[in-house]
Amino acid sequence: MHHSPFHRPDPRFVPAGEHPLWDVALAAVNRDLAVTLPEQRPLCLMALPPWEDGEPEQVHVALADGQWHGNSLWAGPRTAADALAAVAEAAQDTVTERLWQAWPICSVHDLGMHVRKVSGRPSWWCAGAATPGDPPHIRAAIGELDTLQRPHRPNRKRRKKRAQG
């Protein structure tokens, strides 16, 4: 179907299961979103029908209301790691541009992080501080920011028991 330059095809929400590798990747990215921006609803996939016959549909990572920003995901990622890196980068573009804030933020340096693969595993990378001795670092694998954000409180259970008893 050919669309005129004045008629943009209507996007649609992509149902779970249509793109299994992207679904898994999006679940990991949404774990990071829930920890870092708990007021945001989970991200979703939106598809834009092709402009011309024979072209592929364009799939984007969008906010829960269907708004997105940036390039579409490429058709058929080769590996789960490729899908995770692509979805994380697309999610970062959408969150940053639609919410007008850097995301995700390194809790150590208060800087926006970027996707880097480390030993084939997509991770959130921080440039570090400008001071010598505070080098760039990997903050966490994508989907695992929650393992680093919560402060360790070894006496919490003991205090809770005391209060009850």
UniProtKB/TrEMBL annotation:
Residue ranges for the region (Disordered) are: 146-165
| Ranges of Basic residues composition bias in the record | 150-165
Name listed for the protein in its UniProt record? Uncharacterized protein
What species does this protein belong to?
Answer: Streptomyces cellostaticus
